[in-house]
Amino acid sequence: MQLTGSVPALTAAYEVIRQPLGEILPRLSAVLAELVPHRAVAELSTHCAHSPFKTYGAAEITGRLSTADLTPLLASGIPGRPWQGTLTLAGAERPALVVTSRATPRGAVLLLVRDADATPADEAAAALVQALWDVVTSHFDRMAAEALPGALARSRTAAGTRARVIAELGEAYSAALTGVLGVLRSRSLDDAAARATATDLAVSALVDLRAEAERDQQIAEEPAGQAFARLADSLRPLVRHSPVRLELGAPDSPRTVAADVAHTARVIVRALLLKVLEQETVTRVHVAWQITDDELRAAVRDDGPGTLTHGALAPGGVAERLAVLDGRLDVDAVPGWGTTVSATIPLRVSQDPAPDPLTALGERELQVLARLALGHRNRAIAQELHISESTVKFHVAKILTKLGVESRGAAAALFHAVA
């Protein structure tokens, strides 16, 4: 696709963001391939609670990339100013183009790994890569902030699983390395130099392990105060030209909260505030978050007539989002005094969640199943996913086998029950 000119560039952006989430990076790579030839592409997008790091391209490169390679690039990158140079990636010095976006509040970085003999991209090409990445990350932020209950459930499950795996690995490696340190520090060893060297190596391994866990936590979580500040910024325009006075109570807690919890709390509070503002006699609304070790409590209190009901304040979207996170909505209405609405979301993911049969499916199989559950036929699914009809039939057969069902209808029913 020729990207010169505004119309082709807009068409390219549309072609990228219309893809299913798992296909956005491959499609972006294909669109940019002619403009900036590259062997592999990687992204670190902090909007995503469960898979912020993604790669696509040559396996010998993508298989050796990690968040440790992209985290410094995100921290040092300047939005709107693409960087080109040589980086040590996948065990070799490689030319790269790096673009950073602040279209999402916590930033996102895109890395294009190029051939060894590649010449730097011209300024116009680099600027177009930057523009496309800004469009894509804006789309990402919208998807995260307005996640449907099914996507939110998968995010919550994946985030909980990752947290448990990190904790288990941390404990196992810490125990092993601590044992090594104990042996190497023993006075029965005569070779002091060898002991000192081995001790340094073991200490470095422990530091690296803990740094990896902290890095993952920083991506998957955000400070509670920062999350509330983002909420406050989105609420102020709602009352800017209104006689209602908005009071904000930020959480007095230094802890972090999972990104999916923060996204959901913000969406719910905005929805509740809009409902509260529909009352004609409201002059003051107080919005506050309270955070304990176990839960986040988001409260919206008004001085209205006190006649709001649970049904009026909990439309389908609010109720479903809270249900996914095992949360609840409480309404305390006092006629003549006002209404207090509290949304409570647990901060701890259950250690023994009910098994999710959909976890056995790959991303493409989930895409096929989602469309199958909407009643789409094989031909329509093939057109939507840009694959052949025979490939759809293959995926459907695999889905039925993995889910242990015998018909498309049974698979669709299972999908609706879970998601």
Automatic annotation (TrEMBL):
<dbReference type="InterPro" id="IPR016032">
    <property type="entry name" value="Sig_transdc_resp-reg_C-effctor"/>
</dbReference>
<dbReference type="InterPro" id="IPR036890">
    <property type="entry name" value="HATPase_C_sf"/>
</dbReference>
<keyword id="KW-0238">DNA-binding</keyword>
<keyword id="KW-0805">Transcription regulation</keyword>
<dbReference type="InterPro" id="IPR000792">
    <property type="entry name" value="Tscrpt_reg_LuxR_C"/>
</dbReference>
<feature type="domain" description="HTH luxR-type">
    <location>
        <begin position="354"/>
        <end position="419"/>
    </location>
</feature>
<dbReference type="Pfam" id="PF00196">
    <property type="entry name" value="GerE"/>
</dbReference>
<protein>
    <submittedName>
        <fullName>LuxR C-terminal-related transcriptional regulator</fullName>
    </submittedName>
</protein>
<keyword id="KW-0804">Transcription</keyword>
<dbReference type="InterPro" id="IPR036388">
    <property type="entry name" value="WH-like_DNA-bd_sf"/>
</dbReference>
